[in-house]
């Protein structure tokens, strides 16, 4: 029986007595496509491997396939942000092999920890996009639930070598005649290999993927230096570089390629323990590095000391165990660990400097030049460690499939964000910069006797979920689902009470939603009409809790 992601099939066979049988062949034929499955209560789109291989995808990311669902649309192609049903991209849940692969902190516009999903598309077997699923196991999403399943090895060795190349010169000009400047060249290549370690018992699948993109960096025509009425020139920039050198730091240059490098690899093992038990284990690692260019606009320009390299790493382990204990009772257990880090690597530990070339000494204004360490990058490190556990049992009682279980997630967060810890200066003109006569100066420091690490936000967010569901096959036409889910979020430590916050907003900031269960009833129905052509009415309602803040 071949099923799509999230589908359930009940196959009944009645065998009668006969005089002599040399062999028995049982063939199951669906009464229609998966769209008319009696177990579907909501709406969704299935994307199989054949579709993935057929559909061209220049970016080789999961978003290109999510938008095959007509209710899904790009809202920002640069970041890969996807909206489902008009919802914010952060309301979506992205899962790989049934385990969350979404952004664990919430800063990324595409709701993934990096530019692409943690596993290369060449290693993904199928995708399901669901916008209305009333199953009680659904949690952490009020938009779309996107499930992807990775490839597995088989009894035959199989593999692939692939690669793509794009050149910026291949793109045409826009209607205004401006040439394409998104990137200069882009390469993506990789290899996959799968097969048996022990025939019929133990299998492996491995993949490696490398992505590089070179962008042209700063276009000076789009900065203050490219304007005909600019307040400063390249000679002024050279003088600012020389003054910074006298202060003891390298201000950098105006030119650098804005490169992106992404490397990922994964290994999956599948083990048929017995006829009734099977397990899988997957390891994946993704490393991404991208140069971020700040401080450029029609009235500003910046030197490379003001830019930063954004390095991200995602390492994950996923284990699953499926067991059929009897003909009527089965269980499923999952456990995963994910380590995520995002670090801004700065070229120099210098204060942020902004030099104005217009206005007056008492009121600097006009065009300006940035150098030194950008304000928000002076201390900026994010690390999360996430554990997820899931356990469920399904018991068949006549016409009822009763599912029950629990899930638990734990997210340990370390967020070091220290703007202005190196200082932030503004100057009027190069002479004042040379003589150390600043217009404004801001500096933030830890409390006396404390280190820089003391300003980091260190906390733990946990969530426990309990669920039970009855799927009732009333007759050949009607299927009903009744479910109940309870989620309890918990934060280890209450925030410290802030008098000023209470006076300003009238709320006690130390009181948070922690330790209380949210009860979420869910109901779904599916009715198949007795018509010549498949006709079905389905729907439902329920309460859903999104991901943690």
From TrEMBL:
<dbReference type="InterPro" id="IPR039426">
    <property type="entry name" value="TonB-dep_rcpt-like"/>
</dbReference>
<dbReference type="GO" id="GO:0044718">
    <property type="term" value="P:siderophore transmembrane transport"/>
</dbReference>
<keyword id="KW-0813">Transport</keyword>
<dbReference type="GO" id="GO:0015344">
    <property type="term" value="F:siderophore uptake transmembrane transporter activity"/>
</dbReference>
<feature type="domain" description="TonB-dependent transporter Oar-like beta-barrel">
    <location>
        <begin position="257"/>
        <end position="545"/>
    </location>
</feature>
<dbReference type="GO" id="GO:0009279">
    <property type="term" value="C:cell outer membrane"/>
</dbReference>
<keyword id="KW-0472">Membrane</keyword>
<dbReference type="Pfam" id="PF25183">
    <property type="entry name" value="OMP_b-brl_4"/>
</dbReference>
<keyword id="KW-0998">Cell outer membrane</keyword>
<keyword id="KW-0812">Transmembrane</keyword>
<dbReference type="InterPro" id="IPR036942">
    <property type="entry name" value="Beta-barrel_TonB_sf"/>
</dbReference>
<protein>
    <submittedName>
        <fullName>Oar protein</fullName>
    </submittedName>
</protein>
<comment type="similarity">
    <text>Belongs to the TonB-dependent receptor family.</text>
</comment>
<feature type="domain" description="TonB-dependent transporter Oar-like beta-barrel">
    <location>
        <begin position="149"/>
        <end position="218"/>
    </location>
</feature>
<keyword id="KW-1134">Transmembrane beta strand</keyword>
<dbReference type="InterPro" id="IPR057601">
    <property type="entry name" value="Oar-like_b-barrel"/>
</dbReference>
